[in-house]
Design brief:
By secondary structure, this protein is an alpha/beta fold.
C-alpha cells in the first residue's frame, strides 16, 4: 500500500510517496511561483506527484490516495481552500481540479495540521494520545491532535495558535491584530529582535552585526544564538527574551489542552537543547499543573519538513 502526500507551500511544492510503515520513499519538489492561476499551480502539483511516483519506481495505480497540506483555512469536507494569504487564493476547489488531473481520491488539510498528524503517526508524538505540534517559521503554526484525530474546530480554521495575543496592544501581526504570539515567537520575530538589539548597540562594536558581515539585512534566526554561544551578552539577552515569548504561548497551550507531547519544529528547533532546556525551565515554573504527577513532554519534532508530507498522505485515515 502506497500513498502520496503533497506539501503546497508559498515557496515550494513537494510531493512524496509514503509506504505502509509511514516511510517516505521518494520525493520531488518544484517552485510554487505564486501568484499565478489556480490551474497552473495544479498542473505543477500533478507534475511533481507523477515524478515522485516514478522516482519510487511505482505507477499511479499503486497509489491508494492523495493528501495535500495547504497553508490557510481549508475545508476538507468541500475540498475548497477558503482562504490562503500565502498563496493569494480564496474559494479554490483544489480537490476537484487535482482529482481531474490525477484520477485519484484527493483530500486537503491545513499544512500545520498535516505536519502534526505526521508527527503523531511516525515522529516525536508517535505514542501520544493527545499532542500539539508547533512549527516556528515565518509565522507560528500549530496542529492539535486529540484522541488520534486532528482538531480544527467547527469551521476547519482552528489551531491558529500563532494568533493568540500574548502582549495587549503589542506589535502588529501580519493578520492585522496586535500582540499575536506569532509577532514575537516566530523566526521572523527572532530576527526582528536581533535587528533591534543591533541598532541599539554601537554598530562598530556589534558582535552580532559582525556575524552578518556588517550587513543587518543578513540577520537570520541563528545570529543571536551564534553570538550567545560565543559569549556575547547582547546575543544572550536576545535569545533569553525570545525564549520567554515562546514559553508564554506554550504555557497557554499546555494549560488549555494538556497534551501528552508538545513538539517543536521549524528551523529554529535545530538549536536542540540550547533552546529546549531554558524553555522547559520557564514552563515548569509557570504552568498551571506544576503539582500534577503527569506533565507534558516538550521535545523537538523529529520529521522535519517531511512531517507534512507523511501526515497529508494519511489523511484518508481521518476523512
Amino acid at each position: 500500500m502506497y500513498k502520496l502526500g503533497i506539501d503546497l507551500g508559498g515557496t515550494n511544492i513537494v510531493a512524496g510517496v509514503v509506504d505502509g510503515d509511514y516511510k517516505l520513499i521518494a520525493k520531488v519538489d518544484c517552485p510554487t511561483n505564486v501568484p499565478r492561476p489556480e490551474g497552473e499551480v495544479c498542473d505543477s502539483m500533478a507534475e511533481v506527484a507523477k515524478a515522485a511516483v516514478k522516482k519510487a519506481k511505482l505507477k499511479m495505480d499503486d497509489i491508494e490516495s492523495i493528501g495535500i497540506g495547504v497553508p490557510g483555512a481549508v475545508n476538507p469536507e468541500t475540498g475548497i481552500i477558503e482562504y490562503s494569504a500565502n498563496l493569494f487564493f480564496h474559494n479554490w476547489n483544489i480537490v476537484e481540479m487535482m482529482e481531474e488531473r490525477l484520477g485519484k481520491k484527493v483530500i486537503i488539510e491545513n499544512d500545520a495540521n498535516a505536519a502534526a498528524y505526521g508527527e503523531y503517526l511516525a515522529g516525536s508524538a508517535k505514542d501520544a494520545t493527545n499532542a500539539v505540534a508547533i512549527t516556528i517559521g515565518t509565522g507560528v503554526g500549530g496542529g492539535i491532535i486529540i484522541n488520534g484525530k486532528i482538531y480544527s474546530g467547527s469551521n476547519f480554521a482552528g489551531a491558529e495558535l500563532g494568533h493568540m495575543v500574548i502582549v495587549k496592544d503589542g506589535k502588529e501581526c501580519a493578520c492585522g491584530r496586535r500582540g499575536c504570539w506569532e509577532a514575537y515567537a516566530s523566526a521572523t520575530g527572532l530576527i526582528n529582535l536581533t535587528k533591534e538589539a543591533i541598532l541599539k548597540e554601537k554598530l562598530d562594536f556589534s558582535y552580532m552585526l559582525s556575524l552578518c558581515d556588517g550587513d543587518i539585512t543578513k540577520v537570520s534566526g541563528r545570529t543571536a544564538f551564534d553570538a550567545m554561544r560565543a559569549g556575547d551578552s547582547n546575543g544572550t539577552a536576545v535569545v533569553d527574551e525570545w525564549i520567554s515569548y515562546l514559553a508564554c504561548g506554550i504555557i497557554n497551550v499546555i494549560n488549555i489542552f494538556q497534551p501528552d507531547v508538545l513538539c517543536i519544529g521549524g528551523g529554529v528547533s535545530n538549536e536542540g537543547e540550547t533552546l529546549l532546556a531554558p524553555l522547559r525551565a520557564i514552563v515548569e515554573r509557570e504552568r498551571y499543573t506544576k503539582h500534577n504527577p503527569k506533565q507534558t513532554v516538550i521535545c523537538k519534532a523529529t520529521l522535519g519538513n517531511d512531517a507534512g508530507i507523511i501526515g497529508a498522505a494519511y489523511l484518508d485515515n481521518i476523512y
